[in-house]
Amino acid sequence: MIRPLAVTQAELPPGLVAIPVRTALVRTGDDLPALIARAVRGIASAGDVVAVSETAVAIAQGELVPAEYVRPSRLAYALSRRAGVLATVNQPESLQLVIDRVGAGKVIYAAAMHVLGRLRGRRGVFYEIMGEAVTAIDGYTGTLPPYERAIVLSPREPDNFAELVARRAGVACAVVDANDLAKAKVLGASKRVARASVERALLSNPHGNGDEQTPIVVLKWRGEGANPLLDAETPA
Question: What's the pTM value of the predicted model, to 2 decimals?
Answer without folding.
Answer: 0.82
